[in-house]
Each structure stands twice: as structure tokens, then as C-alpha cells.
């Protein structure tokens, strides 16, 4: 690999400009109103979707096996494995998105270069690829401990020394979050987390858990919201059909947490969830019963 390309890959999501020349994403397919996309359910289109998903799996298998060898050689250096895992995510996530073919627009990318707690809503498998691609080098993920059973991604996630939490009971979960915060601080890392704690089936925003606030209170890192729109239309939960829906990733400015107090935890959760409600389209806003 030539030096300019390697240098570009190591600069967070801005390496996308380097990979664009190879993995260029197509423009959006507009409907008659110019604001949506053409959802074509003919057998030929469905077949193409199936081929795209199969190609994604085979491509991920290849990159995962290659990086697994690298990470096994790096077993004595656990936190260097996190950074190598980020590089795997940049290449693999970008490749998956190119194969799927959805047009992607990124806003506020200047806010992605800070050390922070990155949070984003979660409604589609595509969200995982976006997070892999866009989070900067030196960012550790945090997920439920059962992620190890997810094919390919789960095993590499653990091998790359990303963090897992035990959600079997509240006490164990809180202790896991404290350990995660200590790892972030001791190793000068950023963090990426889905504050809803699970994937939304409808695409509508779910209530936020308090875990990311607990980590912010312990680390005092700023919080950078990443708002994902359109992914729930592009690839719905439980579906094997990928649609050409346009996707937007919007970073909001970092929110300082240096003066936050633990007794106001519920207020901070409500404040940040309100930001998401403000910026999400109507079809992704929570129903009244979801936020009560």
C-alpha cells in the first residue's frame, strides 16, 4: 500500500475521500416529488438486493479473516488492537456501504475529530457499517457481552479488545460501565455507544438508557451526537431486502460534561433525547407512548 493511501486511512472518516476514488457511492434515486426514492419490488430488483447482501458477507469474511491474523499477532498489545480494529472498521465499513449502494450525505464532520463519547440512534444493520467507517482511530466500542456470538463481527469485536457490558442485572451493568470508563480514561480513548441499548424495529427513536451519561460523568469527555436518518428505510430489521434509500449522518457540536452532576442524570438524558427528536424526520420521531 502506498504511503499517501495509508496516511489517509489513518485520519478518521476523512480517509473516505481517498477511498471514494475506488468505492464511489452512487447518487440518490429520486421519486416524482424529488424528495424520496423509487422502491422497486420487482423480482429483478429483489435478486440484486440478495446478491448485494451475499457479496457483503463474502467481502466481510475476507477482511475479517485477514485482520484476525493481524490481531492475533498483536495479542500482547491489547490497546493497539483497538486502533487496528478501527482501521479494520474503516476499510470494511466503507466497503460494505459501497456494495449496498445507498447514497450517503455527511454533515458536521468537523465535530468528528475530537476525543469524545460518540452516540447514535440505531434502527438498521447499516448503522453498524456507518459506525465502523466513521468513528476515528482510537475509538472503543461498548456492547452487550452476547455480541461475541454474532457471526464474524462479534468475534473480531472481542479480538480487537472492544468493551462489553454485563446486562444480566443492574448492579453488574453499572460495574461494567465503571470499568469501561476507566479503560477509556487510562488509555486516552474515545467511545462509541448506542444510547437506546437496542435496535428500533420501527425506525422510531427509543428511550435512551443512562449508561452513556454514567460514563460521561466519570470520564468528563464531551458527548457528540450522531444522528442517522434513512437507514431504517434502507435495510429494515429482520429483512433481507436492501432498498436504495438515501442516508444522512449528521454530527452535532460536542456537548461539554465537565460541570455535570450525577443528581441531574435524568435531565441530561432528556436533554440529549430532545436533540434527537428535534433533528430526526417525523417518521423517526418517537411516538408519545415511547417517551412517556
Automatic annotation (TrEMBL):
Catalytic activity as recorded in UniProt: a 1-acyl-sn-glycero-3-phosphate + an acyl-CoA = a 1,2-diacyl-sn-glycero-3-phosphate + CoA
Biological process according to GO: phosphatidic acid biosynthetic process
Keyword line: Acyltransferase, Lipid biosynthesis, Lipid metabolism, Membrane, Phospholipid biosynthesis, Phospholipid metabolism, Transferase, Transmembrane, Transmembrane helix
Pfam family name, one: Acyltransferase
Residue intervals of the Phospholipid/glycerol acyltransferase domain: 116-231
An example Gene Ontology CC term for this record: membrane
Comment, domains: The HXXXXD motif is essential for acyltransferase activity and may constitute the binding site for the phosphate moiety of the glycerol-3-phosphate.
Protein name: 1-acyl-sn-glycerol-3-phosphate acyltransferase
Amino acid at each position: 500500500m502506498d504511503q499517501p493511501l495509508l496516511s489517509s486511512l489513518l485520519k478518521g472518516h476523512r480517509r473516505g475521500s481517498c477511498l471514494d476514488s475506488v468505492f464511489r457511492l452512487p447518487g440518490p434515486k429520486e421519486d416524482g416529488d424529488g424528495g424520496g426514492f423509487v422502491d422497486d419490488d420487482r423480482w429483478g430488483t429483489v435478486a440484486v438486493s440478495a446478491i448485494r447482501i451475499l457479496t457483503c458477507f463474502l467481502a466481510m469474511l475476507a477482511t475479517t479473516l485477514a485482520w484476525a491474523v493481524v490481531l492475533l499477532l498483536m495479542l500482547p498489545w491489547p490497546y493497539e488492537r483497538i486502533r487496528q480494529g478501527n482501521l479494520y472498521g474503516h476499510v470494511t465499513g466503507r466497503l460494505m456501504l459501497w456494495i449496498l449502494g445507498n447514497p450517503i450525505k455527511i454533515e458536521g464532520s468537523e465535530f468528528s475529530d475530537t476525543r469524545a463519547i460518540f452516540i447514535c440512534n440505531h434502527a438498521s444493520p447499516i448503522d453498524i457499517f456507518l459506525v465502523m467507517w466513521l468513528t476515528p482511530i482510537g475509538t472503543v466500542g461498548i456492547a452487550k457481552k452476547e455480541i461475541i456470538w454474532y457471526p464474524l463481527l462479534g468475534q473480531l469485536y472481542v479480538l480487537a479488545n472492544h468493551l462489553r457490558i454485563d446486562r444480566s442485572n443492574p448492579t453488574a451493568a453499572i460495574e461494567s460501565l465503571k470499568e469501561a470508563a476507566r479503560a477509556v480514561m487510562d488509555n486516552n480513548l474515545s467511545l462509541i455507544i448506542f444510547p437506546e441499548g437496542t435496535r428500533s424495529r420501527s425506525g422510531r427513536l427509543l428511550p435512551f438508557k443512562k449508561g452513556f451519561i454514567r460514563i460521561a460523568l466519570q470520564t468528563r469527555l464531551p458527548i457528540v451526537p450522531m444522528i442517522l436518518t434513512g437507514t431504517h428505510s434502507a435495510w429494515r430489521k429482520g429483512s433481507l431486502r436492501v432498498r436504495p434509500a438515501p442516508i444522512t449522518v449528521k454530527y452535532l457540536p460536542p456537548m461539554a460534561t465537565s460541570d455535570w452532576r450525577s443528581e441531574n442524570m435524568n435531565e441530561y438524558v432528556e436533554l440529549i433525547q430532545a436533540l434527537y427528536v428535534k433533528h430526526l424526520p417525523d417518521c423517526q420521531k418517537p411516538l408519545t407512548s415511547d417517551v412517556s
